[in-house]
Design a protein that fits this description.
mainly beta, Jelly Rolls, Immunoglobulin-like, 4 domains, 31 strands, elongated, signal, secreted
Length: 573
Amino acid sequence: MRWICGCYGLVLLVLGVMGQKLPTRDEGLFQMQIRDKALFHDSSVLPDGAEISGYLFRDSPKRYYFVVEEDNTPLLVTVTPCDAPLEWRLMLQELPEDRSGEGSGEPEPLEQQKQQVMANEGTELFTYKGNDVESFISTSSPSGLYQLEIISTEKDSNFKIYSTTTPESDQPYPELPYDPRVDVTALGRTTVTLAWKPTPTGSIMGQPIQYCVVINKEHNFKSLCAAEAKMSLDDAFMVAPKPGRDFSPFDFVHFGFVPSENDFKDRSLTTNRALSNKMSRTYIPKPKVADIQKICIGNKNIFTVTDLKPDTQYYFDVFAVNTGTNMSTAYVGTFARTKEEAKQKTVELKDGKVTDVFIKRKGSKFLRFAPVSSHQRVTLFVHACLDAVQVQARRDGKLVLSQNVEGVRQFQLRGKPKAKYLFRLRGSRKGASTLKVLASTRAGGKQPFPALPEDTRIKAFDKLRTCSSVTMAWLGTQERNKYCVYKREVSESYSEEHRRREQNQCAGPESRRKSEKVLCKYFHSANLQKAVTTETITGLEAGKSYLLDVYVVGHSSHSVKYQSKLVKTRKYC
């Protein structure tokens, strides 16, 4: 068999030359040709034994042609829709017999061959409409001119076509096992474990196989290219090729053929509609789909999907990919709903009392506050001791607050008679979180947590460093508070990373040794521009590293630590 040009004019031209029998496939030449992708790009020629990719504009059909030169030839044609249902059909037209000169070998007149082919409308062998990967297969096909017509009526779409006259020996697609289902073997709140039978193509035939798992929240996919089309930002993985030469009736006239009136009308309508569709479309990039991902895992047939959301339905597809040919076969996908989050015990908050809260990494805690008396507002204090946390507040089920909190924050919530409040605290992704929380309906009075400036860093003056002292400064507020300074000698290997790990703003002065205390003093300033104070710490050793801390203490002895400062005395003075 030999695959030739996909336009009637060139088919007839080839048939008219000498009328000789076309050669069978040269395997060496074929292997060289399929490596050159440009050979088949935007061509109506279907290569024998190679998969091609194509692009359809909506309502603009494409036609592909090939010739089977001998009777009783095996034939396989597979069409893979990528991102829209397709309609396709396969037609057969008999080749004109060589009857001129009573077998003398002289070619039939070209016009007479043309009339024989054009007069035969052909036989429809197979039709299909849908988005499944579908094939036409025949163990004994007659010789003739085969035409594959394909159209997308819903939207512009990508597709793939594979055709061969040696399906038994080629076997480009990985074979599915006797049980092609994907099974869910374990289910958790954020994980799902999948298992499937290995493809015989890899385990028995020894071909290079890898499995790719696709996870999404919408539906299962019937082909890998359909999943890739969904994943693509702008269909860049399969760019629409430049329109190829669509032969018009005038092209046939150029080759010496006179098309019929029906051919002229049909082709003119098709050409004009295609041009109109191509010229009127504006390209709009697709938004990125964050809820679909593809993970290729090698030749393992067990895989655990992680980082899923609790109580959420996911669809899972597995594709066996022949890494030698890059062609794939879809297993029968499955779906599963992850388990719900474990219902946590709700902590009851008492009016005006500080509650300590611990949250695991990525975890959350629920706090309930039900004032016993009528109230106009609720004051909520949140002190995040480590990393920032997310705070949500609902009053009688209605969301009234959603904020990220770092350090100490105060919120005023409007009250309602007999209203109940539910607070959700969501921890950091970096690690566990510790918080102090207070809810109060009492208006006025001194607040339990001290006021803080926007900048809680400690500054050390490099020019004022000596071998035995360092000078530091920090910002205050307009509120009179008590500040306590502590120092601690640390090793030479102590780094900023160590300092960050030890930065717990809720650990008060009571957790420090008495020998580390430098001093305590009261400080405030009515003018925030001048709310800064300095201290010089003496009695230090030369060339040593020290960690400096400042604690601001509130009226109820609740303290907040400023960001620690790592300093080093001069070695030589």
